[in-house]
Amino acid sequence: ISLVNNVLKYGLNELKLCFRTRLSNYLYNSYLSGFTYYKMSNLDSRISNADQLLTQDVEKFCDSIVDLYSNISKPILDIFIYVTKLTQQIGAQGPGVMILYLLISGTFLTHLRRPLSRLTVTEQKLEGEYRYVNSRLITNSEEIAFYQGNKMEKRNISSVFEKLVTHLRRYIDFRFNMGFIDNIIAKC
């Protein structure tokens, strides 16, 4: 069993790395074609932190996609194996009722989890803004010091951080409530 678990972990890590490599190559080919990098950093203010998007966010995205694949495929395989064994032992009625319960509870939980993607996107956006204001402080430290703008920068950083903390508290509350509901449904 330990060999199987380690082979699965190795395969998932290799899948993450392959996915990240292909996605990074694609994004950098687009980013470095023509003057896209110049336009994004100097002419277009919609994307203020391309470096973070191309590094940390790509890594997190690839990790999330592979984890999603793992979290979907393994339970489906487990269900298929259990249903096959149960059908052989007790007939089709028992597994049929169990599958019906799983479908109904899964649909219900999926409906309740819908805000999770929006919360995750908002978290990543706020984390990026927080990193951006900190890197902007480092990049422009000489000008900020010369014009004595440290109080203004502190207010900006504090404001962005406060937005992030407020959102993270909402996210934690949502995850707590979903975990509670998940446990109730799993125990039925």
What does it look like?
This protein is mainly α and 188 residues long. It folds into two domains: 1-89; 113-188. Helix content is 89%, strand content 0%. The chain is built from seven helices and no strands. It has helices at residues 2-31, 36-43, 50-90, 93-112, 115-139, 141-146, 150-187. Helix 1 packs antiparallel against helix 3 (50-90), helix 3 packs antiparallel against helix 4 (93-112) and helix 5 (115-139) runs antiparallel to helix 7. Keywords: Membrane, Transmembrane, Transmembrane helix, Transport. This is ABC transmembrane type-1 domain-containing protein. One of its GO terms (molecular function) is ATP binding. Residues 1-188 form the ABC transmembrane type-1 domain.
What's the SSE blueprint?
Elements: H1 2-31, H2 36-43, H3 50-90, H4 93-112, H5 115-139, H6 141-146, H7 150-187
Helix pairs in contact: 1-3, 3-4, 5-7
What does this entry show, briefly?
By secondary structure, the protein is mostly helical. The chain is built from 7 helices and no strands. Pfam families: ABC_membrane_2.
Give the number of helices: 7
Low-confidence stretches: none
User: Structurally, how many domains make up the residues?
Assistant: 2
Strand content: under 5%
Tell me the radius of gyration: 23 Å
Secondary structure tally: strands: 0
Shape: elongated
Helical residues, percent: over 70%
Order of helices and strands: HHHHHHH
Termini separation: 29 Å
What average pLDDT do the residues reach? 84
Q: Major sheet, described briefly?
A: none
Based on helices, strands and strand pairing, what is the structural class? mainly alpha
Domain ABC transmembrane type-1: 1-188
Organism: Meganyctiphanes norvegica
GO molecular function, one term: ATP binding
Keywords: Membrane, Transmembrane, Transmembrane helix, Transport
